[in-house]
C-alpha cells in the first residue's frame, strides 16, 4: 500500500498535478505602500495562518516596472494578485492574456466601465482628476478655472500646470480625452496645452507648485491635493467640467486582477475579493488618499468630496486603451520636442 501511495505521489509530481498550499498568497502592488499595507494587514488578521507576501513598485519606475515584471514572469508566474493604482496597464495585461477570469463577489449593478467583460479585472476605489488652486491667488470675485480645457486658455498662460502626459493618471486622462473628443479636437487641445501650461514631471510636483504659489492652479489627483490640504496650505479642490454640456470629472480606479497560472489560485481569489469589498473601499475613502468608492450605494463618501455631488465622466477605458500605442508617440513628440 505504501508503495502504491509512493508511486501515486511520483505520478502527481511528474504530471504537474501536485496541489499547492493555499495558506500563502503573493501580491504585487502599485498602490503606495502606506495606503496598501494596512489593508493587506487587515486581510491577514481575517485569515489566521495566511502568509501574505507583498512586492511594491519603485517610485522611479511607477507601475511600468511591475507590469514589465509580470510580463517577464508569464511562463512561470510568481505573483497571484496584482493591485494596480491605475487602469491602462491592467488593460495591457488583459490584452496579453495574462489575467484569469474571477467570480467577483460584488453587486450586479457594478459600473460597467469599472469591470472587465471577461471578468479578468475589477475597478474600485477611484482617484479623481481635479483642479487644485491656490486660494491666495484667487481672492473673492476673481474668475476661477472650471474645466480641464482651461489649461489651453491664453488667460491662464504660464499660471497653470499639468504633469507630463506620458505616464500614470495624466497619460490615462489624455488617452480618455483623445477617445471622447476625437483625434482632431484632441490634437488641437493638447497642442494648445503644450503652448499655454507649465508642464511638470508628475502630479505631486503639480500639487506642490500650486501650494507654493509657483502657479495659480493645476490639474492633479485628489490624493496629491490632499497631501497639501492636510499640511494646512492655502489650496482648494475644484471638480472640473460639472456643467450639463461638459464631460464631467474623470475618476481613475484602482484595479485588482488575478494572474493566469497564479501559484495560489484559491487564496488569490479570496484576497482579490477582499480588496474590492465594501470594507476596503471604506478604509480607502477615509484614509490619507481619500479615494472614491465605486460600489453602488456605498455608505462612505471620500474625505476629498465636498457637500456637492460630483458628476463623473463617462469614460470607456477599454476603448481608450486601444488608442494609447499611437497616441503615446504623438504626445512624446509634442511634449518632449524642445
Structure summary:
It comes from Aureliella helgolandensis. With 338 residues, the protein is α/β, with parallel strands linked by helices. The protein is built from twelve helices and ten strands.
What does it look like?
It contains twelve helices and ten strands. By secondary structure, it is α/β, with parallel strands linked by helices. Strands 1, 2, 3, 4, 5, 6, 7, 8, 9 and 10 form a ten-stranded mixed sheet that branches. Helix 2 (33-46) links the parallel strand 1 (24-29) and strand 2. Helix 5 packs across helix 6 (183-196). Keywords: Signal. This is Iron uptake protein A2.
Beta-strand segment tally: 10
Biggest sheet architecture: 10 strands, mixed
CATH level 1 class label of the largest domain? Alpha Beta
Structurally, the number of domains stands at 2
Helix content: 25-40%
Percent of residues in beta strands? Answer: 15-25%
Radius of gyration: 22 Å
CATH topology of the largest domain: D-Maltodextrin-Binding Protein, domain 2
- The DSSP helix count reads 12
Q: What's the CATH superfamily of the largest domain, by name?
A: Periplasmic binding protein-like II
**CA-based shape:** globular
Order of helices and strands: HEHEHEHEEEHHEHEHEEHHHH
**On the 0-100 scale, what is the average pLDDT?**
91
Low confidence ranges: 1-19
Do you know the CATH architecture of the largest domain?
Answer: 3-Layer(aba) Sandwich
* Helix/strand/pairing category: alpha/beta
Terminal CA distance reads 77 Å
